[in-house]
Amino acid sequence: MELTMNEKTFDCRFGYGFLKEINKRYSIECGGMQLKLGVGAIVSNLILSDVDTLFEVLLIANMTEKPRMTVKFLEDYVEQNGTKNLFEEVIDELKKSEYTGTMTSKMLEEAQA
Length: 113
What we know:
With 113 residues, the protein is α+β, with helices and mostly antiparallel strands. Helix content is 59%, strand content 14%.
């Protein structure tokens, strides 16, 4: 996925590194077992249109890429383009990824039921 504005282009990758980082940030320990809630947590928040989660997801997806995206860029991007399409693009990318696709699709089905 690419975000472009004012001749600046940023790549976002939703691969294994993304999954590891999301699970690291969104996991809890329960009975000595680590519950990895990353994809579930972010998809739930994205469905609810939480802009803070949207920014976090994009920044994490860009962590391994150059140039690095900034919060300021995302703020300017949203001011210029809004969030509706951006939420849809991110959810579509999560559905396409081998690492997040199955869970994302299942959660979207549950949300529509």
